[in-house]
Amino acid sequence: DAGVIQSPRHEVTEMGQEVTLRCKPISGHDYLFWYRQTMMRGLELLIYFNNNVPIDDSGMPEDRFSAKMPNASFSTLKIQPSEPRDSAVYFCASSFHGNSSPLHFGNGTRLTVT
Amino acid sequence: DAKTTQPPSMDCAEGRAANLPCNHSTISGNEYVYWYRQIHSQGPQYIIHGLKNNETNEMASLIITEDRKSSTLILPHATLRDTAVYYCILSTGNQFYFGTGTSLTVIP
User: Fold this and answer.
1) Residue from A42, A8, A73 nearest B98 by CA
2) What is the pLDDT of residues A68-105, one digit of tens each?
3) What is the C-alpha separation between A102 and B11, in angstroms, rounded?
4) What residues of B are in contact with residue A108 (Cβ under 8 Å)?
């Protein structure tokens, strides 16, 4: 199994531009999570999906952030327009059936907004 | 929000056991205790989890007190590659909130 795959690994963009982060969960996993990590705030849960349906998006910072999961093997996190304070490492994770199953994380996307 | 308390940092001599404590006095009956670690800027790595009983796998042992209000992660023979931030998390399996963790440094 290739694990959770995220792309790109690094993204540098200018303020105001649209940014799209991508995630391929582990095959067969039915939960998908998006996290953001910064030095100041640590690891924050942004949103999670179950069977492609968003269940809790209370961690999404503001309307500039949106996440979709069009099918079981793909999810995107979009920021439009991006701001310098969005600079962080964004992690995607997946799990099977949720209950007591551990999360498996990708290697993250390091986003820098200048 | 994170419901666990961990010391911010710990040192351990290489080859010795590393014992990482975690307090979770408000744990609910259906919440599991999970341990993850994060090496540098990699994605967090799952280590072990348990509900009531002590657990052991190839990486570590998890000791949970009888009242479930605290637990200890034990790395039996710490190596330099175990230097990382270790997170103790409570979850029913649907949401995982990470606190600030314990930064473990294994010293040669």
Assistant:
1) A42
2) 999 999 999 999 999 999 999 999 999 987 567 889 99
3) 27
4) 41-43
Of A45, A91, A99, the CB nearest to B92: A99
Nearest CB to B41 within list A4, A89, A98: A89
Give the chain A residue nearest B51 (alpha carbons): A100
Tracing tokens 């590659």 back to the chain, one arrives at: B81
Closest by Cβ to B93, choosing from A35, A55, A98:
A98
- Write down the residue that tokens 């419901």 correspond to: B3
Please tell me whether residue B82 adopts helix, strand or coil conformation: helix
Q: For residue A47, give both structure tokens.
A: 């949103």
Tell which residue, B86, B101, B65, has the closest CA to residue B18. Answer: B86
What is residue A36's predicted lDDT score, i.e. its pLDDT? Answer: 96
Q: DSSP label at B5?
A: B
